Amino acid sequence: MYRNLTAAVLAAQTGWNEWESYGDDLAGFLLLAIPIVFLYGICIGSFLNVVIIRLPRGESLIKRSSHCMTCGAKIRLIDLIPVFSWIFLRGKCHSCGEKISPRYPIVESLNGLLYVANLLVFGVSVNCFLMCIFTSLLICIGFIDWDTMDMYVPMLLMIAVLAIPAYFVTYHSIWERLIGMLCISVPFFLIGEISGAYIKKKTGEKVRGIELGDTILMACAGLYLGYKSIIPAAVIGIFLAVIFGLIIKKVTGSSKFAFGPYLCVGLLLGAWFGEQISDWYYKSMLMPIFEPERMQFTTSALFPLLFR
Ligand SMILES: [Zn+2]
């Protein structure tokens, strides 16, 4: 199918703008790479399930082998295959027949699909590998926050640690990253403080409008992604949270809900398209005001593949 794998890998590294020049090679490479990356992703996703379930309960992540949540039966080796086992068992425990939550295969396939998406966005690169770690961390952070309304600071700090290798494989300067670290987290912190004081005065409750976990998440992710990605990520996250917050309030009557999952979705979209969105916004909205003399050189920066 592919005449030259090296050429295909090179094409992937140089970005999809080179797509046509490699033609069949790249198509063949993708045909091979996508299933492998997907399978790898769902295996890691299987571990993420363990983290999401056990970490909030304070259970060991490695010690005890997987067991049925209802009858405690040890899960057989054959039933440990991510996604597929759940489908073969029709979502039921082999021992007691109790339903197994569809969330297990959902988390697994989500991780697999997002790894494939990372491959398509970033090509075969160190950056892609880092993005896959980032994606898996976001899945854990998002689901744990959804379940417990809480975040694990060590998990958030791992995103900040990713900024170190990212510094060497992407072109964002330290300044871009430092601005990214502060430009969302500082307003989040201030909103949290002010709303916290207001709520305490009014109801006596100790709640913040924006929790510290969300603030630290945006600081760490900003350091990793840079300000051009973190700003659109925050805008998307807040937009989603407002929409779903209103829906949740209408359905359950409660105005308390986890902000984290929406921020995680925003961060993922921000990591993929944030820079294009920022560049497009700058060129179409700000440049005509501040730098009209440069206007003639610009083309649409959003989705270069579509507007070429
Ligand atoms: Zn069982």
Can you describe what's shown?
The chain is mainly α and 308 residues long. The protein folds into two domains: 1-117, no CATH class; 125-294, no CATH class. The chain contains 13 helices and no strands. Residues 298-308 have low confidence and may be disordered. The protein binds zinc ion (ZN). Residues 68, 70-71, 73, 93, 95-96, 98 line the site of zinc ion.
Mean pLDDT: 85
Give the SSE order as H and E letters. HHHHHHHHHHHHH
Please state the CA-atom Rg, rounded to the nearest Å. 22 Å
* Tally of separate domains: 2
Multimeric state of these chains?
single chain
Total strands: the figure is 0
Shape by Cα distribution: globular
Bound molecules: zinc ion
Class from helix and strand fractions: mainly alpha
CA(first)-CA(last) distance: 28 Å
Indicate the percent of residues in helices.
55-70%
Quote the beta fraction.
Answer: under 5%
Poorly predicted residue ranges:
298-308
- Tally the helices: what do you get? 13
Largest sheet: none
Key terms for this structure?
308 residues; mainly alpha; 2 domains; disordered C terminus; binds zinc ion
Summarize the structure.
By secondary structure, the protein is an all-alpha fold. It is 69% helix and 0% strand.
Describe the SSE topology:
Elements: H1 5-14, H2 19-22, H3 24-54, H4 84-88, H5 103-122, H6 126-148, H7 153-169, H8 174-183, H9 185-203, H10 212-225, H11 227-252, H12 260-290, H13 304-307
